[in-house]
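Example record

Each entry pairs one chain with its bound ligand, calcium ion.
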Amino acid sequence: MLSPSLEDYLEEIYRLSQSGQSIRVTDIAACLTVSLPSVTRALQKLNESQYIHYRPYKDIVLTNKGKELGHFLVERNRIIREFLRLIGSQCDVAAEAEAMEHYLSLPTVTAIINFVKFTEQHPSWLDDFRKYSKG
Ligand code: CA
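C-alpha cells for the complex follow.
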C-alpha cells in the first residue's frame, strides 16, 4: 500500500507517461506544486517499491507494476470527478476528487464505477434525477 502522497506521485507519473515523452523531475514538481527534493525522495521510495526505475539524471521508467497501479489511480481520479459532476455537486470537483480518492475503499470505488456506467447507459434516469435535484 502506498501513502496518499506517493499515490499522487505515481498517478502524476503515469499521466505524464501517457504523453509518450520522457518524464522529468521538474515536470512532476510543477504538476504537484512540490519542491524538487520532495520529488526526488518520492521517486526513491517508488523505486524501492519497484513501481518505477529511477536513477538520478536518467529517465524515469514505470515498471509493469507501476503502470498497472498508475492506470488504476488515474482512472479512479477521473471516475470520482465524473461521479461528482453526475450527482450535481456544486463543489470544486478537482479538489474534492483529490480529497476523496485516497479515503475510499476499493468496494466503494467499484460501486461508484458501476453508478457512473449505469447513468451513462440510462440518460433518462439521469434527467429525472437532475429534475428532482433542482426541486
Ligand atoms: Ca490524486
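The mean pLDDT is 94.
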